[in-house]
Sequence to fold (202 residues):
Amino acid sequence: MAGVINDSTVEVRVQEQCAWHRPFTAPGLRSSYSPGRVAIETDDDSAATVEAMTSPRESFAGHTLETPWSMLQLAYFAGYAMWTYLSEPYSLTFPGVTTEELGPWDEDGQIWRRLGVRYPDSIGTHSADQVLYVDSDGLLRRRDYQLDIAAGSPAAHYMDDHREFDGIVIPLKRAVHGRDEKGRRVPELVSVTIDIDDVAVS
Fold:
């Protein structure tokens, strides 16, 4: 499964929970994500379904961090993750999303503000409760969550290299670390990295 979504193009709709990765598993195919259904389909106007799964989150029941995923499970994870990341801050205004400012955080000598976010069941994401960290420039620099689909594994997700595209600021580099019992990242444990080359807003 390694490399399946390397060098892929990601498309999301901000107003609704939809995301696509292309190519996905083979040239001419793409993934299609929504919270209640994921699919592998042809990447053309017909969008013919090759394989699909409904209620995809239920398929992770009993999983640990080491449990292998199917391609449709990867499509679900990658879809909701990228939708979560690329739809902010707009998604924080969705019905049922609540936020609360928490105490400050010292990140290697920098004082970051923290925002607790609770997502409703209607939104597919890592976990219902997450924490966003904002630096002195007002930029999102980190998010904490538990990976519910992998036995609640704790993660500290860092964001860097922020750039502006049509008035929207997006971090182009992301790295997900393990998180210890004190809330600190585990530097040597990196589970995912994301490098974004270009962004188009329409």
In short: The mean pLDDT is 95. Residues 71-86 form the longest helix (16 residues).
